Amino acid sequence: MPSFDIDQIRADFPILSREIDGKPLTYLDNGATAQKPSCVIESMRKFYAEDNANIHRGIHYLSREATEAYENSRTQIKAALGLPDSHELIFVRGATEGINLVTHGLSDRLSEGDEVVLTIMEHHANFVPWQVIADRKNIKLHFVGLTKDGELDLEAWKAAFNSRTRVASFTHVSNVLGSINPVAEMTTFARERGVLTLVDGAQALPHGPVDLSEVGSDFYVFSGHKVFGPDGIGVLTGPRDLLNAFPPFQSGGDMIDRVQVSGTTFREVPERFEAGTPNISATLGLAEAFRYMAEIDWEEARAHEHSLAEKTAEELKSLGGIRIFGESPGKASIISFLYDVAHPQDVGTILDTEGIAIRVGHHCAQPLMDYYEVPATARASFAFYNNEADVEAFMRGMHKVQRFFG
Ligand SMILES: Cc1ncc(COP(=O)(O)O)c(C=O)c1O
């Protein structure tokens, strides 16, 4: 039975009761990485303490058990994502590796003059890999801009398509603005034009379940560490036929069919793209994170996150001299801002003295910073386990910034 009791939820995350220099931790850097519930930590401890073995190649009990647990994790996460039968789920290191796998796989299929539609709000992970193949293959990249509220300019995005467009790659949720892109509408538009889509879901899944059959993209990626799971693990999903037609991304053990001196044949997905020993413990930890998330009442959790973020934005504005980046109604609970009396670095440093963790800098979105003509912003990003006390502590910290610099 899904539930949402904030005190109970906070008790599930041991780090939230930590103190920093005698002050309670206020963790508002969830966009960078999320904290882990005890069950995720315990699942990884248990694997190493009781179950550790390598997968896929052993006939002994532990190896069979570990293989089963690893493959069950895949099945379980596929089901949680509503992955269509035509698609496969590949475990990768994270969103970055997933996107690189796709750009590597597609590069042979793209020729000079082909075009890829991106947006200016992309994280570097969905920017640089495209630039690398664009340089190598002489492909044109379109970077679509934003509305004044920091939403994607959907009309401009649609207008960027032409007969040479082969791929559209875009984030589900902006890690700076919190804007949620209308991914289903975008993938439908692209599909009707024979254009492949990649959706970067790194900032979407931390705010609730995503149904990939509704998203409708060809490829979807996300990172485990942002969805309350371990780091070093992530997911790429994509159409099985197309992935099987991609050249291997890495080669070696586990991904081969037959190796001979005269040459090697490769396995089909998912093994085709899981060369070598994978991050078994993290895969189990990620599956545990999904099990944990399935028990949360996300309607309530989302409403809770939104109300915290809205309250924070309102109280911030009441300081005066605050500029908030991204004012899209219904956006995810991410608040990027500038305070005209203090550089973001100073804001972050003063908040840190109060045990408050926020992020300052370009957030791996330098093209977006250039677009707004700012070098950096401060960013408070919320998760469902944040509470009113976090907002109060954050605002006390901001008043300290005001006293110091204002
Ligand atoms: C929108 C977005 N995409 C991709 C990434 C890259 O994720 P990772 O570093 O886990 O590969 C991030 C990380 O901040 C992100 O916010």
How many runs of DSSP E, i.e. beta strands? Answer: 17
Largest beta sheet: strand ordering? 4-10-9-8-7-5-6
Strand content: 15-25%
Secondary structure tally, helices: 14
* Morphology: globular
- Helix fraction, binned, reads 25-40%
Low-confidence stretches: none
CATH topology of the largest domain: Aspartate Aminotransferase, domain 2
CATH superfamily of the largest domain: Type I PLP-dependent aspartate aminotransferase-like (Major domain)
- Return the CATH class of the largest domain: Alpha Beta
Oligomeric state: single chain
Major beta-sheet overview: 7 strands, mixed
Radius of gyration from the alpha-carbon trace, in angstroms: 22 Å
Domain count: the total is 2
Structure report:
The chain has 406 residues and is of the alpha/beta class. The protein is built from 14 helices and 17 strands. It folds into two domains: 6-30 and 297-405, Aspartate Aminotransferase, domain 1, CATH 3.90.1150; 41-294, Aspartate Aminotransferase, domain 2. It has a seven-stranded mixed sheet with strand order 4-10-9-8-7-5-6, with helices on both faces. Strands 13-14-17-16 form a four-stranded antiparallel sheet, covered by helices on one side. Strand 11 and strand 12 (263-266) form a beta hairpin. Helix 3 (61-81) crosses helix 10 (280-294). The termini are far apart. The mean pLDDT is 97. Residues 94-96, 123, 125-126, 171, 175, 200, 202-203, 223, 364 line the site of pyridoxal-5'-phosphate.
Helix-strand layout with pairing:
Blueprint: H1 6-11, E1 19-20, E2 23-24, E3 26-27, H2 38-51, H3 61-81, E4 87-92, H4 95-107, E5 115-119, H5 128-137, E6 140-144, H6 154-159, E7 165-171, H7 183-192, E8 196-200, H8 212-215, E9 219-223, E10 234-239, H9 240-245, E11 256-260, E12 263-266, H10 280-294, H11 298-317, E13 322-325, E14 334-339, H12 344-352, E15 356-357, E16 359-361, H13 366-372, E17 377-381, H14 388-405
Parallel strand pairs: 3-15, 5-6, 5-7, 7-8, 8-9
Antiparallel strand pairs: 1-2, 4-10, 9-10, 11-12, 13-14, 14-17, 16-17
Helix pairs in contact: 2-10, 3-10, 4-5, 11-14, 12-14
The structure holds pyridoxal-5'-phosphate (PLP).
Pyridoxal-5'-phosphate (PLP) is lined by residues 94-96, 123, 125-126, 171, 175, 200, 202-203, 223, 364.
